């Protein structure tokens, strides 16, 4: 049986590191919000059958976005943490053989080529986009001075999308949250459940808009994509 691919977009964060007047997913780049740029990638992809967006309770910005009336899109309420937001979205999946493609609202520069590389994966461990660490990595002591230099040869920076069987991911997140584990991405929940997700090398321009200086970079990369 062929699988159903459902995109989950956690968009319920407040963007505290961005220091803006609204959550970063609602900041405008090239005439569209970051969330709209991100959703466009998922709407246009023929293998993604629907898109579940987790938004904050009482979010006053989302209703202004006309794209959210698109027939592929469903809104659910987000949670206290990213993991809780993703779990709420997973609860809205009832399809047989569903796979969840979880992608941060704050990563609007994902390319179709990277997305397609990830969608080739079809085993129960799942996979994520990631990039090998290129900078020299230091571990600090509690004063902020260097304790040691880490061996970076097997270190990767996790990106999104992250792609897993929806039922396995739901179980893993549910258990992880119940055990009060720190879960900063879907792969970490799967790792705790005993899986070994594949690392698929992605592009460095798939940035997560996090701090004010990232906006100019996102604009530059999006200009090149258009
Ligand atoms: N997110 C979410 N629900 C939360 C927290 C985060 O859906 N409770 C989403 C964010 O909207 C974002 C993605 O998860 O698209 C990645 O999180 P991050 O970059 O940390 O965004 P924020 O939490 O909004 O930013 P910050 O940590 O700076 O406050
Ligand atoms: Mg956060």
Automatic annotation (TrEMBL):
Q: What domain of life does the UniProt record list for this protein's source?
A: Bacteria
Question: Record's SUPFAM superfamilies?
Answer: Nucleotide-diphospho-sugar transferases
Q: Note the site residues: Transition state stabilizer.
A: 17, 24
Pathway assigned in UniProt: Isoprenoid biosynthesis; isopentenyl diphosphate biosynthesis via DXP pathway; isopentenyl diphosphate from 1-deoxy-D-xylulose 5-phosphate: step 2/6
Positions marked as site (Positions MEP for the nucleophilic attack): 152, 208
Q: What is its EC number?
A: 2.7.7.60
Any one of the GO BP annotations: isopentenyl diphosphate biosynthetic process, methylerythritol 4-phosphate pathway
What is the name of this protein?
2-C-methyl-D-erythritol 4-phosphate cytidylyltransferase
Species of the source: Rodentibacter genomosp. 1
Source gene?
ispD
């Amino acid at each position: 049986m062929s699988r159903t691919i459902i995109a989950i977009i956690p968009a319920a964060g407040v963007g505290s590191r961005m220091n803006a007047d609204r959550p970063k997913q609602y900041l405008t780049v090239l005439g569209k919000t970051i969330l709209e740029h991100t959703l466009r990638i998922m709407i246009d992809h023929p293998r993604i059958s629907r898109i579940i967006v987790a938004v904050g309770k009482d979010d006053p910005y989302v209703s202004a976005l006309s794209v959210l009336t698109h027939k592929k899109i469903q809104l659910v309420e987000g949670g206290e943490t990213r993991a809780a937001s993703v779990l709420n979205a997973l609860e809205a999946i009832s399809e047989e053989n569903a796979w969840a493609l979880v992608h941060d609202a704050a990563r609007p520069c994902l390319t179709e080529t990277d997305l397609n590389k990830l969608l080739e994966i079809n085993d129960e461990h799942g996979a994520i986009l990631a990039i090998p660490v290129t900078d020299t990595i230091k571990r600090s002591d509690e004063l902020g001075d260097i304790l040691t230099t880490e061996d970076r040869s097997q270190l990767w920076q996790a990106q999104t999308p992250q792609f897993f069987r929806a039922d396995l991911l739901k179980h893993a997140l549910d258990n992880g949250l119940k055990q009060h584990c720190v879960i900063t991405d879907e792969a970490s929940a799967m790792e705790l459940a005993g899986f070994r997700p594949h690392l698929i090398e992605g592009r460095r321009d798939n940035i997560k808009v996090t701090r004010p200086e990232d906006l100019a970079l996102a604009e530059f990369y999006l200009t090149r994509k258009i």
